[in-house]
Structure formats: C-alpha cells, structure tokens
Amino acid sequence: MTNFSFDHVLVLGAGTMGRGIAQVAAATGSHVTLLDNDEARAKAAHDGIASSLERAVARGKVGADERTRILAAIRPSTDLDGAAKDADVVVEAVPEKIEIKRALFARLGKTCPSHTLLGSNTSSLSIASIAQDCPAAERVIGLHFFNPVPAMALIEIVHGRQTAQASVDAAVAFALRLGKDPILVRDSPGFATSRLGVLLGLEAMRMVEEEVASAADIDKAMKLGYRHPMGPLELTDLVGLDVRLAIAEHLHRELGSETFRPPEILRRMVAEGRLGKKSGKGFYDHGT
Ligand SMILES: NC(=O)c1ccc[n+]([C@@H]2O[C@H](COP(=O)([O-])OP(=O)(O)OC[C@H]3O[C@@H](n4cnc5c(N)ncnc54)[C@H](O)[C@@H]3O)[C@@H](O)[C@H]2O)c1
C-alpha cells in the first residue's frame, strides 16, 4: 500500500453522505463510482449533485467548466463487483446497520484488489465488528465525514485493532487530498466526536429538566461564552432527538458510564414525536 493511488474512488450508498463524499472526491481529481442498490437513488443522487453544483456556480464558488468536469467524473452504478474490482479506495455510506455493513465488507474483501483501502463512514459502530467477516480486515478503517461533506473540514480516521499502519497512512493521505483535516481515533464507542458532542447535549437536557436555565439561554451560554457555532440543544434539534437517543443508549451500554444514561426529558420528547427540526418541534419550535 506504499504507492497508494486514489484514482478510482468507490462510494457505497448514494444518500445524504454518499453524495457529498462523491462530489468532494470528484472535485479533487478522482474518478468516482457512486453506487446504490437502488438504481433510482443512484441516478437521483447524480441529479442532486448537479443541482448542488449549479447553486455553487450561481454563487461564484465553482466555475462552469469545473462543474462539468466534476459531474462527468461521477458515474452512478448498481454493479458492486464490477466497480470493486479496480477501486483504489472504498467509502461505505450505507445505513447504520451492522449486518448490512458486515456483509458488504466481507464481499469487498474478496472482490477488491489487494491494495484497496476499505473505509466506512459509520458514525458509531465498531470498525473491528464491521471488519469481522472481511478477509482483508487490516485494510478496513473508519473514514468518518461530517454533514454537509463539501463544507465540513473534519475527517475522523478510526483505526480498529486489526487495522494496519499502512492503512492509517493511506487514510491520512486520502483525507488530505480531499482537502480535509484528519484526526486519528482508536476504535472505541462514539469515537471522539460523538462521545464528547452527545455528552454536552445530554447535560444540557438535564439542565433544562432541572430548570437551571431555558434552552435558548443554555445554547446562548455555549455560543457566546465558549464560541460554539451552535448550542448543544439547537444541534440536538438539527441531528434529531431520536438519533441522539439511539447514540446515547449505545454509549451508555458500551461505556457503562451513567453520564450517557439518556435523560427522561429526551425519552419523553421522542415518545411524543418531538424529534427536532424534521418533525417541526423539539427544544425549539421549527414550524410545521
Ligand atoms: N447523515 C449524517 O449526518 C451522517 C453524518 C456522518 C456519518 N453518517 C453515517 O453515514 C452512513 C450513511 O448515512 P446517510 O445519512 O447518508 O444515509 P442515507 O439513508 O441518506 O443513505 C443510505 C443509502 O444507502 C443505500 N443502501 C442501502 N443498502 C445498500 C447496500 N447494501 N448497497 C448499496 N447501497 C445501499 C440506500 O438506498 C441509501 O440511498 C451511516 O453509517 C451514518 O451513520 C451520517
């Protein structure tokens, strides 16, 4: 893996994250296969990238020629084995379900060439567990991008106990090529971002529960006092209270720390369907 090439990037899953990853990889000169098991979704993702680039051209952020080049470099597909056989890097961004990811990495380990870096964009699952049935587990690594991918600088590179140092080096080189700023994190529940971010969110909820201050004032405290671009409760509304509850339950189970026990207010709001921005109501009213 020393002469690592990033010529062909295979992105698995053409949803929110897959689209962004494909766009950024194509913008930095790779040929990208954007693969989904649903053909209509793969095509729709290509159209979605075209619209997003159109807006970027209108704002003067991307030139018209550049837009055409990026779009031409992204090929929607449903043929996994065909695309895998000459992929240099795979970035898996299918739903957060361990059985789907495990099966995909088992297959990729058999079909990809011996140099392919096998990355997963999982936001919480164990990399070792994803790599469990993969015959090339030393090349499986977490490449955790953030939403929206073209705008967010961070990539969390998560190395499992089975990940080879050469794979970590390749992942860092890949992240830098994409113009991202990588951090290295050992495969542990919640990695660095979710573990800290969720903790702050849960504590803010407990403070609302105890009537320490209003949600708006707790958010203001972190924005004005600590220069956070967004308060922990605003962020919870954006991410979705159900998503945060699932992560908190996972971290509480895996880390065994009471600090991750989901507060009653979170459980109650999720049960009432107050999921944040997507449902119109959370800690804030977002209209319907
Ligand atoms: N959405 C976020 O803000 C965010 C941020 C960081 C990481 N993540 C992680 O990224 C991953 C993807 O999240 P998303 O929000 O883009 O999901 P999404 O639901 O928007 O997209 C997933 C896509 O995968 C496709 N898919 C399902 N099974 C497949 C298979 N076997 N082969 C190929 N394609 C398949 C689906 O048709 C869908 O288009 C998850 O692991 C998630 O935890 C999400």
Task: Briefly characterize the structure.
This protein has 288 residues and is of the alpha/beta class. It is 48% helix and 14% strand.
Give the topology, please:
Layout: E1 8-12, H1 16-27, E2 31-35, H2 39-58, H3 64-72, E3 74-77, H4 80-84, E4 89-92, H5 98-111, E5 117-120, H6 127-130, E6 140-144, E7 154-159, H7 165-177, E8 181-186, H8 193-209, H9 215-226, H10 232-239, H11 241-255, H12 264-271
Parallel strand pairs: 1-2, 1-4, 2-3, 4-5, 5-6, 7-8
Antiparallel strand pairs: 6-7
The structure holds nicotinamide-adenine-dinucleotide.
Give a description of the structure.
With 288 residues, the protein is of the alpha/beta class. The chain has 2 domains: 8-186, 3-Layer(aba) Sandwich (Rossmann fold); 194-279, N-(1-d-carboxylethyl)-l-norvaline Dehydrogenase, domain 2, CATH 1.10.1040.10. The protein contains 12 helices and 8 strands. The chain has an 8-stranded mixed β-sheet with strand order 3-2-1-4-5-6-7-8, sandwiched between helices. Helix 1 (16-27) crosses helix 2 (39-58), helix 8 (193-209) crosses helix 10 (232-239) and helix 8 crosses helix 11. The longest helix is centred in the first third of the chain and has 20 residues, at 39-58. It is globular and about 55 Å long. The model has no long low-confidence stretch (mean pLDDT 96).
